[in-house]
Protein backbone atom coordinates (compact mmCIF):
# COMPACT_ATOMS: atom_id res chain seq x y z
CA UNK A 1 0.00 0.00 0.00
CA UNK A 2 1.20 3.52 -0.78
CA UNK A 3 2.36 5.51 2.21
CA UNK A 4 0.38 8.58 3.24
CA UNK A 5 2.82 11.09 1.75
CA UNK A 6 2.58 9.43 -1.67
CA UNK A 7 -1.24 9.47 -1.54
CA UNK A 8 -1.23 13.13 -0.54
CA UNK A 9 1.06 14.03 -3.43
CA UNK A 10 -1.09 12.00 -5.80
CA UNK A 11 -4.17 13.95 -4.76
CA UNK A 12 -2.54 17.36 -5.27
CA UNK A 13 -1.01 16.37 -8.62
CA UNK A 14 -4.26 14.93 -9.98
CA UNK A 15 -6.61 17.72 -8.94
CA UNK A 16 -4.19 20.56 -9.66
CA UNK A 17 -3.77 19.14 -13.15
CA UNK A 18 -7.54 19.11 -13.61
CA UNK A 19 -8.11 22.65 -12.35
CA UNK A 20 -5.27 24.10 -14.39
CA UNK A 21 -7.28 23.08 -17.46
CA UNK A 22 -10.06 25.48 -16.47
CA UNK A 23 -13.67 24.43 -16.04
CA UNK A 24 -12.89 20.79 -16.89
CA UNK A 25 -16.06 19.33 -15.33
CA UNK A 26 -18.20 22.28 -16.50
CA UNK A 27 -19.14 22.98 -12.90
CA UNK A 28 -19.31 26.69 -13.66
CA UNK A 29 -21.02 26.55 -17.05
CA UNK A 30 -23.38 23.56 -17.11
CA UNK A 31 -27.12 24.28 -16.67
CA UNK A 32 -27.41 20.83 -15.06
CA UNK A 33 -24.79 21.69 -12.44
CA UNK A 34 -26.45 25.03 -11.70
CA UNK A 35 -29.83 23.34 -11.29
CA UNK A 36 -28.23 20.84 -8.91
CA UNK A 37 -26.64 23.65 -6.88
CA UNK A 38 -29.99 25.43 -6.69
CA UNK A 39 -31.76 22.31 -5.44
CA UNK A 40 -29.13 21.73 -2.76
CA UNK A 41 -29.39 25.34 -1.61
CA UNK A 42 -33.20 25.04 -1.55
CA UNK A 43 -32.95 22.12 0.87
CA UNK A 44 -30.87 24.27 3.22
CA UNK A 45 -32.79 27.52 2.92
CA UNK A 46 -35.10 27.04 5.91
CA UNK A 47 -32.43 28.06 8.41
CA UNK A 48 -29.31 30.18 8.84
CA UNK A 49 -26.05 28.52 9.76
CA UNK A 50 -23.46 30.12 12.01
CA UNK A 51 -20.52 28.03 10.75
CA UNK A 52 -20.28 25.96 7.54
CA UNK A 53 -17.50 23.63 6.40
CA UNK A 54 -17.41 22.80 2.69
CA UNK A 55 -15.06 19.97 1.72
CA UNK A 56 -13.84 19.91 -1.89
CA UNK A 57 -15.10 23.36 -2.89
CA UNK A 58 -13.44 23.39 -6.31
CA UNK A 59 -13.96 26.76 -8.00
CA UNK A 60 -16.35 27.79 -5.24
CA UNK A 61 -19.52 28.00 -7.31
CA UNK A 62 -21.67 26.29 -4.71
CA UNK A 63 -19.79 28.16 -1.97
CA UNK A 64 -21.39 31.35 -3.30
CA UNK A 65 -24.82 29.82 -2.73
CA UNK A 66 -23.88 28.76 0.79
CA UNK A 67 -22.67 32.23 1.81
CA UNK A 68 -26.13 33.89 1.97
CA UNK A 69 -27.23 31.09 4.34
CA UNK A 70 -24.29 31.38 6.73
CA UNK A 71 -22.34 33.72 8.97
CA UNK A 72 -19.06 32.03 8.06
CA UNK A 73 -18.05 29.47 5.43
CA UNK A 74 -14.72 27.65 5.46
CA UNK A 75 -14.20 26.11 2.02
CA UNK A 76 -11.40 23.57 1.56
CA UNK A 77 -9.81 22.06 -1.50
CA UNK A 78 -6.63 20.05 -1.93
CA UNK A 79 -5.78 21.87 -5.18
CA UNK A 80 -4.06 25.28 -5.00
CA UNK A 81 -5.26 25.94 -8.57
CA UNK A 82 -8.87 25.32 -7.51
CA UNK A 83 -8.54 27.70 -4.55
CA UNK A 84 -6.99 30.38 -6.78
CA UNK A 85 -9.96 30.04 -9.13
CA UNK A 86 -12.42 30.09 -6.20
CA UNK A 87 -10.90 33.28 -4.82
CA UNK A 88 -11.26 34.92 -8.24
CA UNK A 89 -14.90 33.82 -8.48
CA UNK A 90 -15.55 35.11 -4.96
CA UNK A 91 -14.06 38.53 -5.73
CA UNK A 92 -16.32 38.82 -8.78
CA UNK A 93 -19.37 37.94 -6.65
CA UNK A 94 -18.41 39.99 -3.57
CA UNK A 95 -20.70 42.97 -4.10
CA UNK A 96 -23.76 40.83 -4.81
CA UNK A 97 -23.02 38.60 -1.81
CA UNK A 98 -22.69 41.56 0.55
CA UNK A 99 -25.96 42.97 -0.74
CA UNK A 100 -27.61 39.65 0.13
CA UNK A 101 -26.17 39.85 3.67
CA UNK A 102 -24.04 36.80 3.09
CA UNK A 103 -21.42 35.70 5.56
CA UNK A 104 -17.67 35.67 5.23
CA UNK A 105 -15.93 33.04 3.11
CA UNK A 106 -12.46 31.69 3.80
CA UNK A 107 -10.93 29.58 1.05
CA UNK A 108 -8.10 27.36 2.20
CA UNK A 109 -5.79 24.85 0.50
CA UNK A 110 -6.09 21.74 2.66
CA UNK A 111 -6.29 17.98 2.37
CA UNK A 112 -9.33 17.06 4.45
CA UNK A 113 -7.67 13.77 5.41
CA UNK A 114 -5.05 15.86 7.31
CA UNK A 115 -7.49 18.54 8.45
CA UNK A 116 -8.84 18.41 12.01
CA UNK A 117 -12.53 19.41 11.83
CA UNK A 118 -12.92 19.15 15.59
CA UNK A 119 -10.20 21.71 16.25
CA UNK A 120 -12.11 24.38 14.32
CA UNK A 121 -15.63 23.11 15.00
CA UNK A 122 -18.33 22.60 15.91
CA UNK A 123 -19.96 23.03 12.50
CA UNK A 124 -23.62 23.75 11.96
CA UNK A 125 -23.40 22.42 8.39
CA UNK A 126 -20.83 20.25 6.61
CA UNK A 127 -21.02 19.90 2.81
CA UNK A 128 -19.58 17.01 0.81
CA UNK A 129 -20.74 17.60 -2.75
CA UNK A 130 -19.27 15.22 -5.37
CA UNK A 131 -16.25 14.68 -3.12
CA UNK A 132 -16.37 11.52 -1.05
CA UNK A 133 -15.86 9.07 -3.93
CA UNK A 134 -12.57 10.77 -4.76
CA UNK A 135 -11.54 10.41 -1.13
CA UNK A 136 -12.45 6.72 -1.39
CA UNK A 137 -10.35 6.40 -4.53
CA UNK A 138 -7.26 7.96 -2.98
CA UNK A 139 -7.47 6.60 0.57
CA UNK A 140 -8.23 3.36 2.35
CA UNK A 141 -11.80 2.60 3.34
CA UNK A 142 -10.75 2.73 6.99
CA UNK A 143 -9.41 6.26 6.48
CA UNK A 144 -12.69 7.36 4.89
CA UNK A 145 -14.62 5.74 7.75
CA UNK A 146 -12.47 7.55 10.29
CA UNK A 147 -13.06 10.84 8.46
CA UNK A 148 -16.83 10.23 8.66
CA UNK A 149 -16.49 9.66 12.40
CA UNK A 150 -14.47 12.86 12.84
CA UNK A 151 -17.02 14.84 10.83
CA UNK A 152 -19.83 13.53 13.02
CA UNK A 153 -17.92 14.40 16.19
CA UNK A 154 -17.31 17.93 14.91
CA UNK A 155 -20.93 18.54 13.90
CA UNK A 156 -22.94 20.65 16.34
CA UNK A 157 -25.92 18.96 17.94
CA UNK A 158 -28.81 19.72 15.64
CA UNK A 159 -26.31 20.41 12.85
CA UNK A 160 -26.47 18.90 9.38
CA UNK A 161 -24.31 17.18 6.78
CA UNK A 162 -25.24 17.51 3.10
CA UNK A 163 -23.78 14.82 0.85
CA UNK A 164 -24.40 14.86 -2.88
CA UNK A 165 -23.06 12.26 -5.33
CA UNK A 166 -23.75 11.33 -8.93
CA UNK A 167 -24.81 7.69 -8.85
CA UNK A 168 -26.52 6.82 -12.11
CA UNK A 169 -26.02 7.42 -15.81
CA UNK A 170 -22.26 7.79 -15.58
CA UNK A 171 -19.85 5.11 -16.75
CA UNK A 172 -17.27 6.07 -14.13
CA UNK A 173 -16.44 3.22 -11.79
CA UNK A 174 -16.15 5.61 -8.85
CA UNK A 175 -19.82 6.46 -9.31
CA UNK A 176 -21.31 3.00 -9.30
CA UNK A 177 -24.62 3.24 -7.40
CA UNK A 178 -23.71 0.52 -4.91
CA UNK A 179 -20.48 2.32 -4.05
CA UNK A 180 -22.25 5.65 -3.61
CA UNK A 181 -24.88 4.05 -1.37
CA UNK A 182 -22.11 2.52 0.72
CA UNK A 183 -20.85 6.03 1.49
CA UNK A 184 -24.41 7.08 2.27
CA UNK A 185 -24.81 4.14 4.67
CA UNK A 186 -21.49 5.01 6.27
CA UNK A 187 -22.93 8.33 7.43
CA UNK A 188 -25.85 6.50 9.00
CA UNK A 189 -23.49 4.07 10.70
CA UNK A 190 -21.55 6.88 12.40
CA UNK A 191 -24.90 7.93 13.90
CA UNK A 192 -26.17 10.72 11.66
CA UNK A 193 -29.94 10.62 11.20
CA UNK A 194 -31.29 10.86 7.64
CA UNK A 195 -33.46 13.96 7.49
CA UNK A 196 -34.17 14.05 3.76
CA UNK A 197 -33.11 12.16 0.65
CA UNK A 198 -33.96 12.44 -3.01
CA UNK A 199 -32.71 11.54 -6.46
CA UNK A 200 -32.05 14.60 -8.60
CA UNK A 201 -32.22 13.87 -12.33
CA UNK A 202 -31.12 15.82 -15.36
CA UNK A 203 -29.20 15.89 -18.59
CA UNK A 204 -25.61 17.01 -18.99
CA UNK A 205 -24.01 17.09 -22.42
CA UNK A 206 -26.54 14.59 -23.77
CA UNK A 207 -26.12 12.15 -20.86
CA UNK A 208 -28.96 11.46 -18.43
CA UNK A 209 -27.62 11.57 -14.87
CA UNK A 210 -28.99 10.72 -11.45
CA UNK A 211 -27.66 12.35 -8.32
CA UNK A 212 -28.30 11.13 -4.78
CA UNK A 213 -28.79 14.07 -2.42
CA UNK A 214 -28.77 13.09 1.26
CA UNK A 215 -29.28 15.55 4.10
CA UNK A 216 -28.25 14.16 7.48
CA UNK A 217 -28.72 15.64 10.94
CA UNK A 218 -26.94 15.09 14.24
CA UNK A 219 -29.44 14.58 17.03
CA UNK A 220 -30.30 17.68 19.00
CA UNK A 221 -29.70 17.45 22.76
CA UNK A 222 -32.98 17.87 24.57
CA UNK A 223 -33.12 20.84 26.90
CA UNK A 224 -33.38 19.95 30.57
CA UNK A 225 -36.56 21.24 32.13
CA UNK A 226 -36.04 22.76 35.58
Q: Give the helix proportion (percent range).
A: 40-55%
What structural class is derived from the secondary structure elements? alpha/beta
Enumerate the spans where pLDDT stays under 50 for 5 or more consecutive residues: none
Beta content? 25-35%
Largest sheet: 7 strands, mixed
Name the helix and strand elements from N-terminus to C-terminus, one letter apiece.
HHEHEHEHEHHEHEE
The total beta strand count reads 7
Average pLDDT over all residues = 91
Q: What shape does the CA trace take? A: globular
C-alpha termini separation:
56 Å
What count of helical segments does DSSP give? 8
> Can you list the strand order of the major beta sheet?
3-2-1-4-5-7-6
Radius of gyration: 17 Å
Task: Lay out the secondary structure.
Elements: H1 4-19, H2 31-44, E1 49-55, H3 61-66, E2 70-77, H4 80-99, E3 104-109, H5 117-120, E4 123-129, H6 132-138, H7 141-154, E5 155-168, H8 177-189, E6 193-204, E7 207-217
Parallel strand pairs: 1-2, 1-4, 2-3, 4-5
Antiparallel strand pairs: 5-7, 6-7
What do you see in this structure?
By secondary structure, this protein is α/β, with parallel strands linked by helices. Helices cover 42% and strands 29% of the residues. It has 8 helices and 7 strands; from the N terminus they run ααβαβαβαβααβαββ. It has helices spanning 4-19, 31-44, 61-66, 80-99, 117-120, 132-138, 141-154, 177-189; strands at 49-55, 70-77, 104-109, 123-129, 155-168, 193-204, 207-217. It has a 7-stranded mixed β-sheet with strand order 3-2-1-4-5-7-6, with helices on both faces. Helix 1 (4-19) crosses helix 4 (80-99). It is globular and about 50 Å long. The protein starts with a helix and ends in a 9-residue tail after the last strand.
Amino acid sequence: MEDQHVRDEKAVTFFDGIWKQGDYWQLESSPFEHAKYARQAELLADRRYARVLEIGCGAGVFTQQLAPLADRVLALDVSPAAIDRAVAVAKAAELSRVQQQGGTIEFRVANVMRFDPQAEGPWDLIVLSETIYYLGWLNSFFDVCWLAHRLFESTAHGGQLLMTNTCGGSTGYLLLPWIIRTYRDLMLNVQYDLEHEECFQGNKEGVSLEVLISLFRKEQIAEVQE
